[in-house]
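A student in our group prepared the protein record below, which I am reviewing. I have pasted the whole thing underneath without changing anything:
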Amino acid sequence: MRTKSAIASFIGRAGGATSRALGLGGGTSLPGAIALKLDPGLIRELASQLDQGSVIITATNGKTTAANMTAKILSAASLTPIHNAAGANLAYGVATALMNDAEGLKGSKIGLFEVDEAVVKNVVEDLDPKVMAVGNIFRDQLDRFGEVDQTAKLIADGIRLLKSDARLVLNADDPRVAALGKDARVEPVYFGIEDIDHQKGGEVGAQDSKDCLVCGGPLTYSKRYFSHLGDYSCPKCGFKRPRPQITATDLKLTLEASRFTLKTPAGEYKVELGVPAIYNVYNAILAISIGFTVDVDPATSIAALADFQPTFGRLEKIEVEGKHVRLMLIKNPTGFNQAIETLNLDPDPKNIIIAINDNLADGTDVSWLWDTDVERMGKTKALITSGIRAHDMALRLKYSGNKSDIQVEPNLSEALAAGLERTRAGGDLYILPTYTAMLDIRRHLEKMGGAAAFWQPGDRR
């Protein structure tokens, strides 16, 4: 390692250790931020030492879960991922992850980084990845990205920088993502879902992409799973969903698990995940597709995911006072809608807290609440809105015609106490928080002695 990089890494790690010692943060980004100020070429220097190269994953929704699934697959294949597992997905987080292993980057080590859509170009430039995967593009944080066209452009700028020997993994079911492969220098590997039982009618769910990326005409769908993901075509110019090489079919979704048949060039396999929801099927086949591009046998990937545990806030279960608090992170219309669909797998009335913040990390524009399908929310016993924008959420619910007695409690601690009071011993309290609200809620639960567990098959009570 260059002397400049070594000094920058040392000072950055020291800054991170000081931050943790003072209780100011977990040190997942600060070390990298300090080090990159001292040596802007640090990521490129460290990444060049990885014998197995790097993989980057970007998406609006699900990149943390997909990256953690990929980490399990790579580990099962005797590769050792250097991974920003805590979800620090800006350049600072990538630098920190590399710095933490700076003394042992060679051999079986492979870089695995989830990357925020806004910094894809810069990270590709520095990492020179061997694989880049794009999961989906939805409206998210309008104050940062604007509409989906801008997000797609940011990702396309990164794809154009890929070397000709790199691999590109794309979601065939997302027209915005699939279109990124049209002008790519490398032949994409496409993945998708082919399951008629889970298609939705055209009236269900807001679509973030309705027009053809080639001629601007309206897309038509023979199948639509959620938002704009499905089997689409343009009757005007012929643009259509590319045929995926890796697919999931015969989906069976419950509140505890997801089961499906995986079809790959290497054969067909039965898969069972200990996490619910169709979006986690997408996350899984994305991760398996990445494994496929680096020569991991699908059977190895499936075995690696058999005991997959969700990351914090993503269907996480925390035991408090003999009750089960289940966190389901939301941050945009599509994520919120899918949380509702997942909850509706259980027809019984539920205790629910919806906690909406509008801090910078959440996105300061909360107009997206009006594009959510809260009209489809099932029966509730307790319905509490909380967070900085608790009243906005309550107003949205009122306009949806929800007949529940909505309790507005902006203070997260008080809302949590009220929700737990309404939940019987052994019962479930579902919390749908935005990102910073989720962090605050976890801190409150930790102070209450909450023990984190994970949503596993057969664990419903």
